[in-house]
């Protein structure tokens, strides 16, 4: 079974420096039909204006990862990390017993666009941790690249949950096929571009739940599409 969620159906928050779209209930946005998807709790697609960002704030007991679609994001946290995350890079943080962090766009001229994704952890009150990695573009081009997993398979980043995250850069008219692992379901999100999934056209910000082990065929419709698949337990 496939369940389509169009970009315009998402919640939205705007102020002078942030334009944020919420796939699931978040902050003041509440939709009882889209609170979470298994252990997947948040997908926010954020556009942060130049020389702006989120000040220091606290998280605990959450697996949080950031996927940069364009631009550069600067991260600082109470663990002592100070890093810049560029387009194509992935950052993951276990908030565990509690961590303070900030996220800032250091550019004076360019916005940064990112996906911030939260997953409920498999263990509570663990020691906070941080990891970051650039996955080569060619590893994602017209194929699915595992970028996050519970056991760091194939150089993926570790998550404290039974969750597998794949990324792909799909060119026009190229195809990839995907079928969830047994007992798993998947949330498919179009970060940019446009694709056809079986008989459905999905554009930037659109997403789809893939359930009951259904196989999908994804065909690129624009020059390049940036795609994320998040596989969780049923």
Molecular structure report:
The structure is a single chain. This protein has 234 residues and is an all-beta fold. It has one domain: Jelly Rolls (Sandwich). Helix content is 2%, strand content 56%. It contains 1 helix and 22 strands. The strands form 4 sheets. It has a 7-stranded mixed sheet. The mean pLDDT is 97.
Q: How is the topology of this model organized?
A:
Blueprint: E1 2-5, E2 11-14, E3 18-22, E4 40-48, E5 52-59, E6 63-70, E7 72-77, E8 82-86, E9 89-94, E10 99-105, E11 112-119, E12 129-134, H1 137-140, E13 145-149, E14 157-158, E15 164-171, E16 175-178, E17 184-192, E18 194-197, E19 200-203, E20 207-210, E21 216-220, E22 224-233
Parallel strand pairs: 13-14
Antiparallel strand pairs: 1-20, 2-3, 3-4, 4-11, 5-10, 6-9, 6-11, 7-8, 7-10, 9-12, 13-15, 15-22, 16-21, 17-20, 17-22, 18-19, 18-21
Low-confidence stretches: none
Shape: globular
What is the strand arrangement across the widest sheet? 1-20-17-22-15-13-14
CATH-derived topology = Jelly Rolls
Q: How far apart are the termini?
A: 13 Å
Computed Rg: 17 Å
Strand portion = over 45%
The helix/strand series, from N terminus to C terminus, equals EEEEEEEEEEEEHEEEEEEEEEE
Would you tell me the overall average pLDDT?
97
Largest sheet: 7 strands, mixed
Number of separate helices: 1
* Beta-strand segment tally: 22
């Amino acid at each position: 079974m496939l369940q389509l969620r169009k970009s315009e159906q998402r919640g939205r928050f705007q102020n002078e420096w942030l334009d944020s779209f919420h796939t699931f209930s978040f902050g003041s946005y509440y939709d009882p039909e889209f609170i979470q998807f298994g252990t997947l709790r948040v997908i926010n697609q954020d556009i942060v204006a130049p020389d702006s960002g989120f000040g220091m704030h606290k998280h605990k007991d959450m697996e949080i990862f950031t996927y940069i679609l364009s631009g550069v994001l600067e991260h600082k946290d109470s663990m002592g990390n100070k890093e810049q995350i560029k387009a194509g890079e992935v950052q993951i943080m276990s908030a565990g017993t509690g961590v303070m962090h900030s996220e800032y766009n250091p550019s004076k001229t360019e916005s940064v666009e990112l996906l911030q994704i939260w997953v409920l952890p498999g263990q509570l009150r663990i020691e906070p941790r941080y990891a970051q990695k650039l996955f080569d573009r060619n590893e994602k081009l017209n194929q699915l690249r595992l970028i996050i997993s519970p056991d760091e398979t194939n150089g993926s980043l570790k998550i404290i949950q039974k969750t597998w995250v794949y990324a792909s850069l799909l060119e026009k008219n190229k195809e990839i096929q995907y079928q969830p692992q047994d007992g798993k379901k998947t949330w498919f999100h179009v970060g940019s571009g446009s694709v056809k999934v079986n008989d459905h056209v999905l554009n930037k910000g659109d997403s789809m739940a893939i359930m009951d082990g259904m196989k999908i065929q994804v065909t690129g419709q624009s020059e390049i599409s940036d795609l994320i698949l998040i596989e969780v337990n049923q």
